[in-house]
Amino acid sequence: MMERTDANDVKLIWQSQRREHSTMSAEELRVKAAQIQAKVHRNLIVAFVLGVFVLVFCTIAIAELKNASGRLVAAALIVLTCVITYRAYDRLWSRPTLSSSTALNACLEFYRAELKAQYRSIAVVWRFLVPIVLFAFLTWNVLFRTSHLVPRLALPAALILILLGRRLAVRKYKQKVSALDEFEREES
Amino acid sequence: MSQSRDDFYKQATTTYGDALGRLVRAYELDSEKRRDLLQEILLALWRSFEKFEGRCSLRTWVYRIAHNIATSHVIRQHRANSRLVSLEEIDTMAQQRDAHAADQLDLERLLQLIHQLNPPDRELMLLYLEDLDAGAIGEIMGISAVNVRSKIHRIKTILARRFHAGGQP
Question: A27, A87, B56, B112: least buried by Cβ within 10 Å?
Fold first, then answer.
């Protein structure tokens, strides 16, 4: 311990700390960035496949259902699904871009966009899963002439699981975004 | 600009690698989390260099991104369990600190002091300790050099009170 230390000595104390962790090489970073990107891509592919599945499901429903209201619901679902599936497909091939003022905007815009991209890739999956389960619950007896227990037990359970998963993902995303908001407030 | 993203990254880590190591130490107590935070900063830097056009210095770019990633990390970690204070408050607290502070090593005391600061003041303190002048600090933080100078004056007072007499009030 030093008995007398002036401001310059404090700077020296600070700067003389030895390095604790080594920095990553550009190659390691490329791998890490690719892993994150792959995760987003994976979610978008799942969403796209689910979208196609919903479209097939709805087409079968239109062909099989006798009542007009059921067919109308299925047709509306097809339109909605086409829009979401197209967006998922579009995002699948779009290259993530950064604003030219990334650092000047205190990096937050970049970080926020990154969080949003990750969240959107998950959210689109929920958007498909919920109508699939609801639709299956409503039309089960018409489409599959099996036991009533399956739609009564399995489908609500699946819906609860989906909603819980969605809630967790949303909460995690909101926590990160509110941390950024808080930081922005403090900075201003 | 002929330099590639990898070139900028290499230049940044060679020049500011040690400073980034010290920065994460000032933002995270846990060694494992420090490594994660450093990786998060390096990843953000590497990705951001795709758009680096030299409109500001490499130093400003690196410190801005590093501090902002580190700050959002510390806010996430600390928002529930501890209160961060300003330079003004910590100056008052310095006069009330306990006698045990005298037994701690200088670096530990310095880190303890830094960890109590709110993000903007922490950033300013770290940039001051990295020996940047008021103009450079102002450019990185987006505030005026005059404002930085007055805050630096306060930092010097706090450091003198805490370290001049070996931790005694």
Answer: A27
Chain A contact probe: residue of B57, B61, B74, B75 with most A CBs at under 10 A: B75
Distance CA A145, CA B76 (A): 51
- Integer angstrom CA distances of residue B149 from A133, B88, B117, B164: 62, 15, 18, 21
Predicted structure pTM score: 0.58
Contacts of A147 (CB under 8 A, 6+ apart): none
A83, A74 Cβ separation under 8 angstroms: no
ipTM of the complex: 0.75
| Mean pLDDT across B37-48 | 87
What's the gap in Å between the CA of B7 and the closest CA on chain A? 9
* Nearest CB partner across the interface for B105, out of A1, A10, A175: A1
Residue whose structure tokens are 């369990």: B81
Chain A interface includes B21 (CB < 8 A): yes
pLDDT in tens, B60-76: 889 988 888 887 787 76
Instruction: Say whether B72 and A108 touch across the interface (CB within 8 A).
Output: yes
Cα separation of B23 and B34, whole Å?
A: 10
Other Cβ atoms within 10 Å of A37 Cβ, number = 13
- B85 secondary structure, DSSP code: B
